[in-house]
Amino acid sequence: MFNDKYQEKLEKDLVNIYKNYKSKYKIDYNYPEKLKKKYFDRDIIHKKVFPLVKIIIKDGEAIVNKKIIEQFKESQDFRIVYKYRMVKKTLEWCKRNNLTVPNTTLHFWITDAYPFYHENYNHFPLFVDSRPQNLNIPIFPDVTFECFTVDKKYSDRCLQWDTTKRIIKRNANHDIKDKQKKFYFKGTDTTRRHNNMRFNIKNWSLTNEINGTILLDAWKNYEPIYKTSEYFYLLNLPGHYGWSNRLKYLYLMKSIVININMKTIMYKDDIIESIDEKFISFIDYIIKPNNDFEYTYTYHMKNDNNFFMSSTINDYIIEENNKLLQFLKSIPSKYNSNKEQYNKMIERNYKKVFKLTDERMYSYIYRSILLNSEFFNK
Asked: What is the C-alpha separation between 17 and 322, in angstroms, rounded?
């Protein structure tokens, strides 16, 4: 195991979450069944597979229900395959390092969202890829750490994190002077059903509100991630939910990373029902936010089956879009006012992210197994 300050910082949130299960948030062992009922009661007709999956660890081996894996594969969803692979590689790493592995059962939520539709989510260790920072839910490294495609989107050839880092280092343009001083984003139009953020930013670039290249054609025209390094102001934008697995790669480009977070205020009959603070994922354990280049977009939405927005909510969205535009417009002058400081920040963040390795993730997963075994040990 790694026992330095870097690893301690990486695992701090995980340790605190499991401490809370002993005091503030007692575990509700019936939560999976309650969640299952809530999940299928919701009006989502295309959902056929319950995305809670168990990986059982017994006598140093990982076991998962193969029928469930096949159900996910039928929907072209391979995330549980990669999660399972990460756990298996962790156990192999444990054997090489003579580490004792307790029996336990890990629970995974195989979807981009956290299980927001059941109120007891703070009372059960259900591993998610990302969550609002104010919630007591453990985070697991997202599957692109295990399988990232360089050739084309979701191709068969996928690479682990250490290999991906080496490819980026070999191919990226790390010379700040040679980069295009433009905003850049490449992805798909995944925000069109709610705040329309990605389309709006693209439109701002087309109308010269900002100097940028904003491409929403990633399904049709794929480019290797290291091509992103040709630009200096790199946007990390939320998608269907308030996070993106893109963020970790942007820090490896040695450019200014502009991280747009999302805070969600949910309404029921025009009354505030819940508030989700900004989302965090595994990489947020490493990089401390810089307020000069980080913006939290407050998204107002209705929690019902009527997708039509009230005039009040629509006004909020217009206001937030205007704030976001002004924030983006301010970025170049901020950088130019203190280039030396921000160039040091770029280099510092690059080194922090590059220091993260496959083995450090195995150490984090091993810590998860140890902590989880205190509550699930059969």
From this structure: 37
Q: Which residue has the tokens 């998962």?
A: 64
Q: Which of 88, 82, 17 is nearest to 57 (CA)?
A: 88
Tokens at residue 63, please? Answer: 């076991």
The Cα 121–Cα 114 span in angstroms is: 9
Strands 294-302 and 256-268: parallel
What are the two backbone dihedrals, phi and then psi, of residue 302, each rounded to the nearest 5 degrees? -100, 140
The secondary structure element, H or E, covering residue 306 is none
CA 244/CA 261 separation, integer angstroms:
9
Alpha carbon dihedral 247, 205, 278, 372, in 10-degree steps, equals -30
Length of the chain equals: 378
CB 261 within 8 A of CB 297: yes
277/326 Cα distance (integer angstroms)? 22
* Nearest-angstrom CA–CA distance, 232 and 243: 21
Give the C-alpha separation, 284 to 248, whole Å.
Answer: 9
Tokens of 69: 């894996």
Alpha-carbon distance 117 to 269, whole Å? 17
Rounded Cα distance between 326 and 332, Å, is: 12
- Alpha helices by DSSP H, listed for the chain, are 5-20, 31-41, 66-74, 79-96, 161-171, 197-206, 247-250, 311-337, 339-355, 358-373
pLDDT in tens, 114-169: 888 778 899 999 999 999 999 999 999 999 999 998 766 555 678 999 999 999 99
Q: Given this model, what pLDDT does residue 305 score?
A: 47
How far is residue 147's CA from residue 164's CA, in Å, rounded to a whole number?
9
Question: What's the predicted TM-score (pTM) here?
Answer: 0.93
Distance of CA 337 to the CA centre of its chain: 31
Distance set, CA 277 to CA 25, 245, 256, 302 (Å): 19, 18, 24, 16
CA 370 vs. chain centroid, Å, equals: 23
